[in-house]
Amino acid sequence: MALTTRDLTPRIGSEIITDIDTLLGGGEAQAIRDILEQRGVVVFRDLDIDDAQQVAIARTLGECVEGEGEDGIYKITFDEKVNARAKYLQGSMFWHVDGSLQPYPNLAALLRPVSLAATGGDTEFCNTYAAYDDLPEEDKRAIADLRAIHSAESSQYYVRPEMSYEEICFWQQSPTKSCPIVWTHRSGRKSLVLGASADYVEGVSVEESRALLAKLRDWATQPQYVYRHKWRMGDLVIWSNTGTMHRVLPYAADSGRLMHRTILAGEEPLH
Ligand code: OGA
Ligand code: MN
Q1: Domain at 4-127+222-264: CATH code
Q2: Ligand 1 pocket: which of 89, 251, 257 to mutate (most atoms <8 Å of CB)?
Q3: What ranges make up the beta strands (E) of the chain?
Q4: pLDDT tens string 228-248
């Protein structure tokens, strides 16, 4: 079965209608990668795959990052009994790019619900290529050479605004990273690199940094660039981590929400 696609919004998100065997066979993998790059997010409904199939599908699309979770599956939850890093994962409620601190941010992530919350827990994605493309020319010029320092500490302030000295020291052990605000990809296309890990803009005052980062985030997360996914059991969602930001809408830690994530290794450096 070939692929049938349906746009979920004009600027971001496509549903792909296909079957498990087509995905496992890998014959459409390049086509899926192309749709992912163009549309930012792809959604498969009623696929009902298991962990092994999720990893096998991921392997047709790129190189799976081992070392995160077990057998290519990482458990996304706010429940500390299920994942000891659940507190850290609460940072995912704020717009972010996964792995922005790494030299090669992940290419993409595959996410599938194992158990859903009765309320909350939709996931939103915004298209940072489209947001860049639509910026007024003078804004493009103003940010062309700007860089932001990203840190784990910055993301944590969103979760814990009044961190203790010990907590701050702990998060400051992770090295910070300078990233361009405008990412020029190998394709020549440009996207915005923002999110909760973006601490401040280099060479700019604290006030100007905060204002500029908020202004750009507000711009990039306007409704026309956002797709909101309402999860159903059986779904598989893949997002391009190099051309989108995402966040999960709040849900209770004891809601039972559990998602299984597989990530694809980055193929383009962000430096
Ligand atoms: C992630 C993430 C969002 C969600 O897995 O990187 O941000 O919906 N997850 O749980
Ligand atoms: Mn994330």
Answers
A1: 3.60.130.10
A2: 89
A3: 4-7, 14-17, 41-44, 74-76, 108-115, 123-127, 147-150, 177-180, 182-184, 190-192, 198-201, 226-229, 236-240, 244-248, 258-264
A4: 999 999 999 999 999 999 999
